[in-house]
Amino acid sequence: MQRIKFTIAALANLDTPEDNKTCEYGDTEIKPLHCRVRPSGHKSLSVYMRPKGSPRSVRVTISDFDKNTKMPKVRAAANELVSQMQQGINPIEAERAAKEAAVLAEKKAEAESMTLQRALDMYTHEDRIATGKNDSEDAIKQNTADGYKSHIEKHLDDWLNMQLRDINPKMVRDRHTRIKKKVPVAANNVMRTLRAVYNYASEETEDANGVPTLPPNPVRKMKRKWVKETRRSNFVKPTMLKDWWKSTEKIAGTRKGTRRDDVPIYKGDGALARDYLQFVILTGLRRREASSLLWKNVDLKGKTATILDTKNKDNLELPLSDYVLEILERRNKKDNYVFPIVEVKKFLAWVRDDSGVEFTIHDLRRSFITYAEALDIGLLTIKAMVNHRIATNDVTGGYARITVERMREPMQRITDYVLGYAGVKTDNVVAIG
Q: What percentage of the chain has pLDDT greater than the value 90?
């Protein structure tokens, strides 16, 4: 390696390499001070030497070189780097450690000042909301975000400006007891929400080694304090289907008014309400899966519908039975959504009152699954139709792939079963009873 005394003039006159290789020159005064000249003509100044006690040399760039370079500053920086390495300090590692320390300090400061409101805002931030396009693994659905906000703002509103680290297990137990006395069904959900939000904030403020800077989650000791929950088992029994179905048809009907015009029985889009309810009980879809179905994902010719916005984030392609196809064919196709529903409470209440059948939208999904089991349809097929994942320890289920065509015949059987008990006569169905 050629050595020259590094001056502005000497460095400026260094030729650009002709063999397309980088050339390196050493300073005659500070031996570890080097100048690299690349084929592009770009020049950079650096110190290249082995720190004391280190097995290999390291290169620390000081600056690029041009006519405005201040050589006294370069030499001062080079001497400082040489001094550090002679003491056994690796400047690159020292800089990395300094950056990590700065990040840790920032994380600790953030954790110190982290309020419940700030943690909730982070958890429900719009960047985390699933859109169906390139969603991250920790993406959440909009209704999940809305539910979490509602839980905390209704029941923990006086904690919103409190720092997370100040929320302790006793406070959690006491608040859970207080909520339980007023709204038992909400007590567990509120604390599950707090646990999830706290865990997310804790992960976001971990240090470089993944060590939490927040205290342990205060909800962790709630295991024996939860309100005992029983799994809902309500469904529309076959003997109720005739009354229920008649009410869904009636809601779309009219009655004679005082004038010549017919007056709607239901003050809303009764046809939409009827079609939506019948569609859900005949497909087993979740409430939002049905209401978010887009026309562009419906193939009337191929008799399939693809649901993208599912709970487990797996797309679901369903075959359409004959009657479900009729429901879709009578829908208005000018809207992007098949069922452009904003609120279901009013028409649910109307059908409940008229039919005498107590049910929720999820009860219709549960009914679909119950009918499928009554027809001895295989468990794997039922799971596929309602988009339930196969358990990871189910080896056989892990190999099974239930295609849309494999589901077509079972789907039609369930439709025929429902229509039969509902007293609906079609070419394929004979009314029961």
A: 61
Domain with 411 in it: 238-422
203 pLDDT higher than 70: yes
* Domains held by the chain: number: 3
* pLDDT per residue as tens digits for the range 121-146: 999 988 888 766 656 667 788 888 89
pLDDT per position as a tens digit, 107-122: 777 777 889 999 999 9
State whether 195 and 339 are in the same domain: no
Q: d(Cα 10, Cα 81) in Å, to the nearest integer? A: 23
Output the pTM of the full model: 0.57
Residue 156 CB partners (closer than 8 Å, separation 6+): 116, 175, 190, 194
Q: Are residues 7 and 127 part of one domain?
A: no
d(CA 251, CA 191): 40
Asked if residue 70 and residue 119 are part of one domain, the reply reads: no
Residue 24 in any domain: the answer is yes
